[in-house]
Structure formats: structure tokens, C-alpha cells
Amino acid sequence: MMENRNTYIYNSHQRCLNRNMKPHVFSAPKDKLSERELEQKKTKLAETISVARTFMTKLIAELDGTAVVIVITDHEGYMIEMYGDEMIKGQIESLGLSTGIRLKEEEAGTNSIEMALKIGQSAQLIGPDHFFQCLHESACFSVPFYSSGKISGTISVMMAAHHASSFHVGLLQSAVDSIEREVRVKKQNKRLLVLNQVLMENSRNGVVLANEDGKIVEINPFAENVLACKKEDICNRQITEVAVIGEYMGDVLRGHNKYEDVEISIANKTYLFDSFPIYDESNQINGAFGQFRDITERLVLERQLMLSEKLSAIGKISAGLAHEIRNPLTSIIGLLVVLKESLRTGNDKQKEYFRIMFSELERIKNLVQQFVMMAKPDQKEISKSSVSIHALIEDILTLMENDFRNKNIKIHYHASYKEKVQIDKDKMKQVFLNILQNAYDAIEFEGNISIDIQQSHLDNGIEIGIKDDGFGMDQNTLDKLSVPFHSTKKNGLGLGLSLSYNIIELHNGRIKVESEQGKGTIFTIWLPLS
Predict the structure, then answer these.
(1) pLDDT tens digits, residue range 320-353?
(2) Checking phi first, is residue 127 left (phi over 0); if not, alpha (psi -120 to 50) or beta?
């Protein structure tokens, strides 16, 4: 059972006498911390010491001029901090009681600090309650403070005995209770701050906070990167100065709205943006929160899924209709050839009619062929053989000779590499046909197409360059060249180049395209030699 105050004091005095300690002879305690040890303990109790100064300064003011000294110790009774009335402080230090000293019964006699630590509650010693006579004119009040359920130290008030009353221990207990609560709150806030910093620093969402005046108070690294700014440069600036998101957050601060899943575009990327008000305890807006998350890849995947569904649908339709369309188409073309030969007319109009019919039928045949290519189950398989690309391109140029002549397009062909390579002849022929057809379509009338085949100087491969001086392409068109069903042609399906990219990829090659509106386009195809 815990000793009561009077019993404790009596027993403490008896223990002092049993140690041959003399009440009228006081010696300074010898158990003292080194400067380094004292600093380490101060650091450990820094939060409590800081908060205690605030509350104990208020307590001193409430004592209405009574001279006091405040002492803070750790859980072992070492004096860590001492401040207050300089005269009383000087008297205490003259006895050898200074910071770093340990107030234990064996050296300091009966003292309120060790008493509070041992009994685990507030303790008071007034006048003769102290063992040593030199302390009979003083009064000491000590209250233990706790951290994580354990005693971490004490806070004490020392004053002249004639000023002391039970009121002082109650006042000190109240102050210590407030100090403990404040320290707990600060620790919780610190943990929350650390957690908040971890979340902010590592979040894959951009986060921006503004205060009630519209000034930016916080921004995380992801938002810095997206908005191309530095935290130190943007904080304290008006949120409305920030492009794209500023107007939304400004609107939130004015109490007009809150925003969820607003699709915005920043630096060619797409984000979903949210912004909502932050309220204080009076339900008044005192800030705005904004966050944005990158959905660019998600949109790309969604488009790819839609594209896959389109391709699947095209495949099913093509598989069912290609045969039915191609057979009558072949018959019509054959019959027209027979009809043209049998008429043998010199009528220019009839010749022009036949030319247009053959041209349109060939275009339909080409479109059907593209649908068939999309529908083939072996589209991702290639059958390589030893082929001369030089001879392959010469065949294509012969095939398109009349088309080039009709537009007065000059062909500049140079092949410094004529050796055979391992490729899928039919598929590569389709690639060169598609690119040359695009070059042809890009020139309205009179122009030049240059074709060059050479061995690559940088790696073990060959390069086929196809250049035209047609109308060229803008950056948006360039970015979508490999996307199926994207075409700038009036009657185009947008399948030719998509197929070409796939075929080159199956050959472990690559395509590079350079273009400028009004100046033309260069396709460079690289294929490995091994």
C-alpha cells in the first residue's frame, strides 16, 4: 500500500538519520551529469521543456508577484532545467543544487522531487518537512509528468515557506495536466505531419493547398513536376496565377462550387482534377484543397481496347464479306477488259470512262485487300525468304509507272545496296506500296519522289529512304500515323500505314518519319541484316 505524505516524510527522515546524515550539515550532492549527458537529456525532454516554459510562465504570473523558481527533472531525478526568481535561484545554487545534479535522498535528504517520483503523485514539503535545516525556510511542490503511461520526470515550484499553501500544489497539478495534454497533441501533430509529408512526398497525385486569402501554402513534388514550378517559388503566390487549376480553386474559395473528376490537360497529358473547400470549426471556408491524377495511360488503354474491339469487328465482317466482294469484283474487272478489247474504240470519252472505271475498281480491290489483311489470323506471322529489295522496289515502280506519269511525278531511284536479305516478300511489298502510294497522294501535280537503298553505317542493317516533296504533315498527324482508322485522306480507311508499322515490327525493324507541312515527308525504314 502506498505511503501517505506524513508517513513518507517520517520514514525518509529516519532513513537519513540511519545513514549518519546530520540535519545541520548539508553537503552538495556528488552525483552530477557531464555537460554532454545533460545536453542529451535536455534533447530527450525538449518537447516537454518547451511546452512547460509557456505554461509555467503563465503560472508565475498567476502567483501575483510571489518569487518562485521552476525546476524540471527527468525520471531519475536529475535537474535538467531551472529558471525563475534570480535571488532564490542563487540561494539554491549556493547549496550546490544546479542543473545536472541528481536529487536523491542519500545526498539531498528528504526532497519533494524524489518523493513525487516514488509515490507517483504530487508531493509537497514545507519548512521542517525537509530533512536539512538549511531548507526549513523554503517550500517545494513537485508533480510528476507522464509520457506513454510512464513517469518521464517532474516539474517543481520552489518558494519561501511563508508564502506556501495547498493552493500552490493544486495550481501546479493543473499546469502539469495542461502540459501533458499539449505535449501529447504536439506529438500527435508531429506524427500526423510526418505521415502527411510521407503521403505528400510519395503521392502519385498532385496536391495543392491554398489558404482563405487564396495564397498557396503547400504543394507536393508531383504537382511541382506537373506544373513545372518549385515550391519555394510558388508558395505565397495567388492560386489564380496557376494555369488551368487556378480558376477552379479560386472559384472554390469564393464559395461558388466544388469540383470532382474534371478532365484537364497539362503539358500534353490528361488529368482528373478535384477541388473542394476546407472549413474551420465555425464552418467558414479557410482554404481550398486541389488534387489531380494522371489518367493519360488509362485513356490510352481505353482507346487501345476500343481499337481492339474495332479490329475484332472488322475482322469478323471482313472474313464474311471479303470473299463475296472479291469474286464478283474480279469478274467485273475481267469482263470490262474483254469489253474494252472488243470495242476497240477511238472515242476519247469512252477511253476516259474505261480509265475511271478501272481506277475505281482497283481502288475498291485495294480496300478489300486491306480488310483481308486485317482479318487474316496469320497476320502476326511472317514467312522469310531471300529477297532483293532492289528488285522488289523496281517491280513496284513499274506497277505504278502510269500513275506517276499521269501526275508528272519524277522518280529518283538509287540503290547502293542490292544484295538479297531475309524478309517476307509479300508483306514487305505491301509496306513499300503503302508508303509510295502515300507519297503519290501527297503530290497534287508535278513533284519528286526519291528512293534510296543503302547499308546502315550505325548498325548491321539496311536503310530504305522514301522522300517526297508533297504537302507534308503536321505533328498531330505524325503522332497518329500508326493508329488504325486514322486517315487524312477523303476516302482513306487509315489501315495502310498501321499494317506497315506492324509488318516492320514483325521484321524487328523500325520506321522513322520526318515531315513538315508544305515541304514534304521522309520515310526511313531500317531492317536488320541478320
Answers:
(1) 666 667 777 777 877 887 777 777 666 777 777 7
(2) left
